[in-house]
Amino acid sequence: MNASDHQPPQLKVTVVGATGYAGMELARLLSRHPNVSSLRLFSSPRTGPARAQDGGEALDFRMRTGTTLAVEPYAGDALSAAPPDVAFFATPNETSNEVIPGLAREGIRIVDLSGSFRLRDAGLYDRWYGFRHAAPELLQKFVYGLPEENAVAISKSRFIANPGCYATSVLLPLIPLARAGLIDWTAPVICDCKSGVSGAGKTPTATTHFSEVAGSLKAYGVFAHRHLPEIVQESGAGGKVIFTPHLLPIDRGILSTIYLKKTDAEAPAESLRGRISEAYAGAPFIRVLPAGELPQIKWVARTNFCDIGVAVEAGSPWVILVSCIDNLLKGAAGQAVQNMNLMFGLPEVAGLE
Questions:
Q1: For the chain, percent helix, then strand, then coil, each to nearest 5?
Q2: Of these four, 49, 97, 118, 319, which has the most CB atoms within 10 Å of its CB?
Q3: What kind and span of H or E run contains 6?
Q4: Confidence label for 201 from pLDDT (cuts 50, 70 and 90)
Q5: Per-residue pLDDT tens for 250-262?
Q6: Helix, strand, or coil (residue 135)
Q7: Average pLDDT estimate for 202-212
Q8: d(CA 130, CA 294)
Q9: Active site (annotated) includes residue 165
């Protein structure tokens, strides 16, 4: 066996939707990744010419990503003619639904950051996403890309559905307790989540301008946010989940406070904390905080960490879990790179340290 047989792969990578917030984070991370030998950037198919190359936006793109690579207008034929080892789609849900099926059938490895392949039941897309799914037969082929839970399946798959940012922040603390049978589902699990405004995407709206967001806090998507069915699906919820997102007047970060009832009213916080710590032993991006400590957004901003804290009311069955992530990294681009690393047998932390 040659020494070269042990060399890690050098990958040709494409990012579609490179001018959005998550796309720019991908461009920044992948341009520095030790195992990426070639990086090609496209705008989203729905945006037309690559805006990042126009005047001041070209400078903005270079400064944010640290790369001088050109962003090409999307061309599916060009991608098919020179297929990459993996293509990331940081595109709107509707765009991924339209464009990805054809490329997947060509065998191109895909990491999709939209929600278009997260739900296994095609019938849910009409209600939660507002469109009929273009390729229901592909939904079972896409692995839900939560690395701490699905690493083995991710490593064997060609198609990854990157989790939603809110869903990531809820599922990571919730799943270990749900799987251990420690949640009493006779009471609802309440997920009170707050996100920075970058979670709404780069396209400005009347509700995300600075003058609308600054100095305020508001709930939105009540009983209607599309990350809810994803949370229910992946947690194996045995009862009601209530999820309410809020918009914070900051640029990035998510803090999720999760209220639940435990099956053993006498179980102390330390036993629950121990269960979560055990589940993520060796997980490089999970930090379970010590007793009496709860996470803060500033501790995880611009990192790929998820910080988790546990609090239990003495003498009662109630538990509060608090988690924090950066919505653009662990909630999007950073997690997507984690998934790529697992797909190609690379160290999970490659390009993310």
A1: 35, 20, 45
A2: 118
A3: none
A4: low
A5: 999 999 999 999 9
A6: coil
A7: 69
A8: 37
A9: yes
How buried is 206 (Cβ within 10 angstroms: 0-12 exposed, 13-18 middle, 19+ buried)?
exposed
Contact, 322 vs 309, CB < 8 A?
A: yes
Catalytically annotated residue among 165, 193, 306, 324: 165
Domain range summary for the chain, segments of one domain joined by + = 3-162+332-343, 165-325
Pick the CATH number of 3-162+332-343 from 3.30.450.40, 1.10.8.60, 3.40.50.720, 1.10.472.10: 3.40.50.720
Which residues neighbour 315 within 8 Å (Cβ) at sequence distance 6 or greater? none
Please tell me the CATH superfamily of domain 165-325, with its number: Dihydrodipicolinate Reductase; domain 2 (3.30.360.10)
Kindly give, in sequence order, each residue whose CB lies less than 8 Å from that of residue 176, ignoring residues fewer than 6 positions away: 275, 276, 278, 279, 280
77-86, 139-148, 272-281: least confidently modelled range: 77-86
Which residues are bridge partners to 191 per DSSP? 243, 258
Contacts of 323 (CB under 8 A, 6+ apart): 169, 170, 172, 173, 255, 256, 258, 295, 306, 307, 308, 309
Say yes or no to pLDDT of 202 above 70: no
